[in-house]
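[#protein-structures] MJ: dropping Sodium/calcium exchanger membrane region domain-containing protein here for a structure pass
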Amino acid sequence: MIGATLSAGMFVSGAVFGAVACIAAPFHVDADAYRRDATFYACAVVGLWFVLLDGEVTRWEAAAMPAYYVAFVAIVLRGEDFKRDGGVRRRRPSLEEVERGRVGGGGGGGD
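AK: finished. structure tokens for Sodium/calcium exchanger membrane region domain-containing protein:
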């Protein structure tokens, strides 16, 4: 089971990416996103190695795996929001600011 999971990840990042590059070349790859994804994958593999060192997977270790994925998805989505906003983190207005009408017309807040 573990071998199949790791092999699938290597296949997607190697063979599929390579095939797309050969067929659809040239195309743009977002270097930051690729680095982020490769780093998360490498950390997941190293983390899995540490989990499997003793030959047993505890409940905490098992719970950490989907939690790690949820953290990855949250970081990806947050990064997409950041890119969409032009690299500017916007502060959400407080309820008090909204009630007093101190919020700019853009809906992004921060006025």
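MJ: nice. DSSP finds four helices and no strands in the chain.
AK: one more thing. The two ends are 53 Å apart (CA to CA).
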